[in-house]
């Protein structure tokens, strides 16, 4: 990966070329770029550090995001299970209540049938007594 793409890099100092070139009055070789190599190296290392830090942070964020997704999924599954348990519990309670009501209805029907039979017997007995009274004591 070339991190310096698009940048102009100045030529580096070469000791072989320096021996072939003339010295300036200041003692420097014309065109020598002693500090450029250090600057380019530090710039490249700085850019590499920035990229590595960015990649490390991206990985950390991705890991946190994945963990949060897993936690959210586990929480959603647990909530779903609790809702199902609650609904099943309510359905079960409703079913039990329905069975109790059906038993009470059967008991009430039985009691009503017994009272109907007794009422019919009382009506038959009172009708028979009425008939006897009319026969014994006509008007």
TrEMBL record:
GO cellular component: BLOC-1 complex
GO biological process, one term: endosomal transport
Pfam families in the record: GCN5L1
Protein's recorded name: Biogenesis of lysosome-related organelles complex 1 subunit 1
Annotated InterPro entries: BLOC1S1 (IPR009395)
Entry's family note: Belongs to the BLOC1S1 family.
